[in-house]
Amino acid sequence: xxxxxxxxAALAFVAGPALAEPAALDTRIEALARSxxxxxxxxxxxxxxxxxxxxxxxxxxxxKQYPNKAEPLIWKGIALSTEAGAKGGMGALGLAKEAKANLxxxxxxxxxxLNGSIYTSLGSLYYQVPGFPxxxxxxxxxxxxxxxALAINPNGVDSNYFYGDFLxxxxxxxxxxxxxxxxxxxxxxxxxxxxxxxxRADVTALLAKVRAxxx
Length: 215
Known about the structure:
Layout: H1 22-42, H2 46-65, H3 71-87, H4 93-109, H5 113-128, H6 139-152, H7 157-169, H8 173-184, H9 193-214
Helix pairs in contact: 1-2, 1-3, 2-3, 3-4, 3-5, 4-5, 5-6, 5-7, 6-7, 7-8, 7-9, 8-9
């Protein structure tokens, strides 16, 4: 597949009739997103892994409360894949496989949920995980999923960043630069300021590598 986590307190779920209201799900999904933003970009070391485990558990609870909704499964998959990246090594492969399974389940419920995040996440897993016989990595599948993500969210910062990163790793330097420039021009996401700031820093750093490669 980055400080006390104050925002996790907002993820405490309230049992009762309110769970039947769509607004309740939206509020909880937004809380998951803000919590992940904080952990991914502002927490380091062992605390990062611990807090990602907590986010995945919250998303799992929410997926059981809303079994027909894709969004909780997507965030569980994202949290698991981020945890895999934070841990690294062979021990991360099981987490990556679990993340993939949750994302594939979400795809069956609503492939376009969260602006194509399913395909962005699956694509990034497929090009970052080792291939056979160690893992399930597959560059062709990665490209196909990342293009599906762009079809749903052509101007998104994440969809263009991960496609640009994939292209860079494949040696397609000119195409990578175009995707990353598009990522920098992506519109801001209200409520996701931490994620936008962090991702733009990722884009800028990768774009510098791309331009250095161009010479």
